[in-house]
Amino acid sequence: MLFSWYNQPFFAAGYVIPLSTRVFDLHGIAFAAWTLVAFAIGALAGMLIRRVVPAIAATLAVYAGLALATTVYLREHYMAPLITSRPNLPGSAWVVSQWYAKDGRFAFPSRGSQLVSALSRYCPGNFDGSPAQCLSRHGYSQWSSYQPGSRFWPFQWIEGGWLLALSVLLIAATIWLVRRRAA
User: Fold this and answer.
1) The whole model's pTM is what?
2) Of 2 and 176, which is predicted with more confidence?
3) Burial of 90: CB neighbours in 10 Å, binned 0-12, 13-18, 19+
Protein backbone atom coordinates (compact mmCIF):
# COMPACT_ATOMS: atom_id res chain seq x y z
CA MET A 1 0.00 0.00 0.00
CA LEU A 2 2.81 2.40 0.86
CA PHE A 3 4.44 1.81 -2.53
CA SER A 4 1.13 2.45 -4.32
CA TRP A 5 0.58 5.64 -2.35
CA TYR A 6 4.12 6.84 -3.10
CA ASN A 7 3.88 6.21 -6.85
CA GLN A 8 0.36 7.64 -7.33
CA PRO A 9 1.53 11.20 -8.25
CA PHE A 10 4.01 9.76 -10.75
CA PHE A 11 1.24 7.67 -12.37
CA ALA A 12 -1.05 10.69 -12.56
CA ALA A 13 1.65 12.80 -14.21
CA GLY A 14 2.50 10.04 -16.71
CA TYR A 15 6.10 9.55 -15.54
CA VAL A 16 5.79 5.87 -14.70
CA ILE A 17 5.33 3.15 -17.30
CA PRO A 18 2.69 0.83 -15.75
CA LEU A 19 4.20 -2.35 -17.19
CA SER A 20 7.74 -1.61 -16.00
CA THR A 21 9.14 -4.18 -13.59
CA ARG A 22 9.55 -1.62 -10.83
CA VAL A 23 5.84 -0.88 -10.82
CA PHE A 24 4.16 -4.01 -12.14
CA ASP A 25 5.44 -6.50 -9.55
CA LEU A 26 4.56 -4.28 -6.59
CA HIS A 27 1.05 -3.30 -7.61
CA GLY A 28 -2.34 -4.92 -7.69
CA ILE A 29 -3.00 -8.60 -8.08
CA ALA A 30 0.55 -9.55 -9.07
CA PHE A 31 1.93 -8.44 -5.70
CA ALA A 32 -0.46 -10.69 -3.79
CA ALA A 33 0.17 -13.58 -6.19
CA TRP A 34 3.96 -13.25 -5.90
CA THR A 35 3.63 -13.19 -2.11
CA LEU A 36 1.54 -16.37 -2.15
CA VAL A 37 3.92 -18.19 -4.50
CA ALA A 38 6.90 -17.19 -2.32
CA PHE A 39 5.12 -18.68 0.69
CA ALA A 40 4.30 -21.87 -1.22
CA ILE A 41 7.90 -22.24 -2.43
CA GLY A 42 9.15 -21.69 1.11
CA ALA A 43 6.74 -24.22 2.59
CA LEU A 44 7.77 -26.87 0.06
CA ALA A 45 11.47 -26.11 0.48
CA GLY A 46 11.14 -26.31 4.25
CA MET A 47 9.32 -29.59 4.01
CA LEU A 48 11.90 -31.12 1.65
CA ILE A 49 15.12 -29.73 3.17
CA ARG A 50 14.14 -29.73 6.88
CA ARG A 51 16.80 -27.14 7.73
CA VAL A 52 15.84 -23.50 8.15
CA VAL A 53 18.76 -21.62 6.60
CA PRO A 54 19.19 -23.91 3.56
CA ALA A 55 15.41 -23.83 3.01
CA ILE A 56 15.45 -20.03 3.09
CA ALA A 57 18.36 -19.96 0.61
CA ALA A 58 16.58 -22.42 -1.69
CA THR A 59 13.36 -20.39 -1.49
CA LEU A 60 15.19 -17.19 -2.41
CA ALA A 61 16.99 -18.89 -5.29
CA VAL A 62 13.83 -20.44 -6.75
CA TYR A 63 11.82 -17.25 -6.26
CA ALA A 64 14.54 -15.10 -7.88
CA GLY A 65 14.82 -17.49 -10.83
CA LEU A 66 11.07 -17.52 -11.33
CA ALA A 67 10.84 -13.73 -11.09
CA LEU A 68 13.72 -13.27 -13.54
CA ALA A 69 12.27 -15.73 -16.05
CA THR A 70 8.88 -14.03 -15.81
CA THR A 71 10.30 -10.55 -16.26
CA VAL A 72 12.69 -11.39 -19.09
CA TYR A 73 10.78 -14.05 -21.05
CA LEU A 74 7.15 -14.57 -20.07
CA ARG A 75 5.46 -11.24 -19.35
CA GLU A 76 5.97 -9.70 -22.78
CA HIS A 77 4.12 -12.66 -24.33
CA TYR A 78 0.93 -12.52 -22.22
CA MET A 79 -0.75 -10.76 -25.14
CA ALA A 80 0.52 -10.20 -28.68
CA PRO A 81 2.42 -6.90 -28.81
CA LEU A 82 1.34 -4.10 -31.11
CA ILE A 83 3.66 -3.24 -33.99
CA THR A 84 3.99 0.23 -35.45
CA SER A 85 6.31 2.37 -37.51
CA ARG A 86 5.11 5.58 -35.86
CA PRO A 87 8.03 7.38 -34.22
CA ASN A 88 6.00 8.68 -31.26
CA LEU A 89 4.79 5.86 -29.05
CA PRO A 90 2.42 6.53 -26.16
CA GLY A 91 4.24 7.57 -22.99
CA SER A 92 2.91 4.57 -21.10
CA ALA A 93 4.10 2.05 -23.70
CA TRP A 94 6.45 -0.77 -22.78
CA VAL A 95 8.76 -1.15 -25.79
CA VAL A 96 9.49 -4.83 -26.30
CA SER A 97 11.80 -4.46 -29.30
CA GLN A 98 12.74 -2.05 -32.08
CA TRP A 99 14.31 -2.63 -35.47
CA TYR A 100 14.90 -0.99 -38.83
CA ALA A 101 13.44 -2.23 -42.09
CA LYS A 102 14.10 -1.32 -45.70
CA ASP A 103 11.74 -2.17 -48.56
CA GLY A 104 9.51 -4.11 -46.15
CA ARG A 105 12.29 -6.40 -44.94
CA PHE A 106 14.18 -6.56 -41.67
CA ALA A 107 17.47 -4.69 -41.99
CA PHE A 108 19.01 -4.61 -38.48
CA PRO A 109 18.07 -4.11 -34.82
CA SER A 110 17.89 -0.60 -33.42
CA ARG A 111 20.85 -1.31 -31.16
CA GLY A 112 24.26 -2.79 -31.69
CA SER A 113 27.07 -2.82 -34.19
CA GLN A 114 24.86 -3.02 -37.30
CA LEU A 115 23.14 0.24 -36.34
CA VAL A 116 26.49 1.91 -35.69
CA SER A 117 27.76 0.65 -39.05
CA ALA A 118 24.70 2.00 -40.88
CA LEU A 119 24.96 5.36 -39.11
CA SER A 120 28.65 5.70 -39.96
CA ARG A 121 27.91 4.81 -43.59
CA TYR A 122 24.83 6.98 -44.16
CA CYS A 123 25.23 9.68 -41.53
CA PRO A 124 28.94 10.37 -41.09
CA GLY A 125 30.02 12.95 -38.54
CA ASN A 126 27.46 15.04 -36.75
CA PHE A 127 23.96 14.84 -38.11
CA ASP A 128 20.83 16.78 -37.29
CA GLY A 129 18.01 14.97 -35.52
CA SER A 130 17.74 11.40 -34.35
CA PRO A 131 19.30 8.33 -35.96
CA ALA A 132 15.81 7.35 -37.16
CA GLN A 133 15.44 10.65 -39.05
CA CYS A 134 18.82 10.26 -40.69
CA LEU A 135 18.21 6.66 -41.72
CA SER A 136 14.69 7.45 -42.98
CA ARG A 137 16.23 9.72 -45.62
CA HIS A 138 17.98 6.59 -46.95
CA GLY A 139 14.86 4.42 -47.10
CA TYR A 140 14.97 2.84 -43.66
CA SER A 141 12.00 2.89 -41.33
CA GLN A 142 12.08 2.19 -37.63
CA TRP A 143 9.54 -0.34 -36.31
CA SER A 144 8.57 -0.85 -32.71
CA SER A 145 6.90 -3.75 -30.96
CA TYR A 146 5.25 -2.58 -27.76
CA GLN A 147 2.69 -3.33 -25.10
CA PRO A 148 0.40 -0.35 -24.38
CA GLY A 149 -0.03 0.76 -20.79
CA SER A 150 -3.76 0.03 -21.06
CA ARG A 151 -2.92 -3.67 -20.77
CA PHE A 152 -1.78 -3.26 -17.16
CA TRP A 153 -4.85 -4.89 -15.59
CA PRO A 154 -5.20 -7.75 -18.12
CA PHE A 155 -1.50 -8.53 -17.55
CA GLN A 156 -2.08 -8.38 -13.77
CA TRP A 157 -4.92 -10.90 -14.05
CA ILE A 158 -2.95 -13.21 -16.34
CA GLU A 159 0.10 -13.20 -14.07
CA GLY A 160 -2.03 -13.52 -10.95
CA GLY A 161 -3.86 -16.49 -12.48
CA TRP A 162 -0.86 -18.58 -13.38
CA LEU A 163 0.89 -17.72 -10.10
CA LEU A 164 -2.22 -18.80 -8.18
CA ALA A 165 -2.30 -22.09 -10.10
CA LEU A 166 1.41 -22.63 -9.36
CA SER A 167 0.81 -21.85 -5.67
CA VAL A 168 -2.03 -24.36 -5.48
CA LEU A 169 0.20 -27.04 -7.05
CA LEU A 170 3.08 -26.29 -4.67
CA ILE A 171 0.84 -26.29 -1.59
CA ALA A 172 -0.86 -29.51 -2.74
CA ALA A 173 2.56 -31.14 -3.21
CA THR A 174 3.61 -29.97 0.26
CA ILE A 175 0.45 -31.36 1.88
CA TRP A 176 0.80 -34.64 0.01
CA LEU A 177 4.44 -35.01 1.13
CA VAL A 178 3.57 -34.18 4.76
CA ARG A 179 0.77 -36.78 4.82
CA ARG A 180 3.00 -39.35 3.13
CA ARG A 181 5.75 -38.87 5.73
CA ALA A 182 3.24 -39.02 8.59
CA ALA A 183 1.85 -42.35 7.42
Assistant:
1) 0.79
2) 176
3) middle
